[in-house]
Input
Amino acid sequence: MLHASLMRFGCLAALRQPLMTCCAVLFVCLWCDASRKFITAQEPRQRQIVIQHNLLEVPTAKAALQLLQQPVTLVWEKKTLREGLEDITHSYRLAVWLDRRIDPTQRVTLAAAGDGKPADLSSILEEIARQTASEFGLVENVAYFGPPGVVARVQRAAIELHDQISRSRGDQQAQMKPFSWSELATPTSVLDSIASNWDMRCEFQMPHDLLHAGSVGSCNLATQLSLLGSGFELEPELLPNETIDFKPLGPMINWQFTYDVAALDSASLRGPGLARLLNEIPGQVRTRRGQVLVEGPTSLHMRLQPRSRVASQQDLDQRTWSLEVRNKSTEVVLNTLAQSMGLEIDIDSDIPLDKLQRLISFDVANAGIDALLQAVAEAAELQLERRGLRISVTNR
Output
C-alpha cells in the first residue's frame, strides 16, 4: 500500500513539474505583455501650454526686443565680462542678469566688423555669450546669460508664470515694479523682499549664496522670480492664496499663443521666410482670419516679432503720438519711449532713485515728439532735453 501510494505520488509529481513550468512561462508572458501595455500607457506626453497673457507683449518686453535690433559698435580688448555687461547696461539701458554659474572674470574681445558696418546689439550679445561658453536670451526686458541649455527653460518658466499670475488677478496683465538688492544679499532675503513688494506669500528657503549689489530696473513679478531661481535651476510656481513656491526647473516646452496678424513681422510670415525660420527653429505657424497661431519655443515667438526701423531726425519730426499712460514708473516710461523710437537716453545719476520709480500718468493726443517729451517731463517733474536722436534727463 505504501509503495503504491508512493508510485501514484511519483506519477503526479512527474506530471506536476511540466505543468508548473508551463504555468510559469504563461504567467511571465502575460506579465510582460501587461507591463508593456502599462509602460506604454504611462509614457509621459509633453504637456501643452496655451498662453492667454503673453509676457512678450508687455511694453517693456517689446521695447527690449526693439532695442536688440539697434545697430551698435563695440570694441573691447580683453575686458572682463562683468565690466563689459555693466558698460552695456549703462550705455544702452538694457538690464542684464548674469547666472551665478558663469564666471564674470572671463575676458572678452570685440572687434569692429570688417565691412565697417555696426552689428545689431543682439548679435553683439550672442558673440559675448559664445566667448564665455554661455547662452543669451531675453526674459521680458532683461538680457539673461546662463549655461547652455538653461536659457530657453527659464524663458518658458517666466512666460508660463506670468500667464498664471495674470489669470489669477482677474485676467489683468501683471504690473511692473523695481527689482534691486543690496551688497551681500542672500537669495532668500531677495526672495523675501520680492514677496513683500508684491504682497505675496512665500516661505521657500533658497539655497545659500551671496550676491553683489545690483538692479534690473522695473519688470514683472514672473521675471523677477524666474531670474532669481535660474542659477539654482529652480522655477517658481503659483499656489492658491497668492503663494509662491519653487520646484526643479522643468524642460523647454513649446508654448502656444494666438497673435493678431498685424502684430507680427509680415516678412517672416511669407512662404520662403517662414520656411527658413521653421527649418531653423521647429514649430508651427498657422494663419487664419487675421490671426496667427504660433506654437514653439520662446525663440520662435521672438523671431516673429516685428523688426524695428532705425529712427531718423526727419521721422521723429513728422510723426505724432496719441498715448494714455496710467500708473507707470518714470523709469519704465522713459526707457520704453526711447527704445521704441530708437533714441539714446542719458539719465543724470543725481536723480533720486525713488523719483525714477515714482508712478506717473498722462495723456497726449496727436502730439509731436517734443510735446510728448514735455508731457512726460511735467508728469515726472524732470527736465527732458532732446538733441537729435539723444535725450538728456536731469532733475528739476
In short: The chain has three domains: 55-248, 255-303, 313-395. DSSP finds 14 helices and 20 strands in the chain. Residues 1-16, 22-32, 34-43 have pLDDT under 50 and may be disordered. The first strand starts at residue 49 and ends at 50.
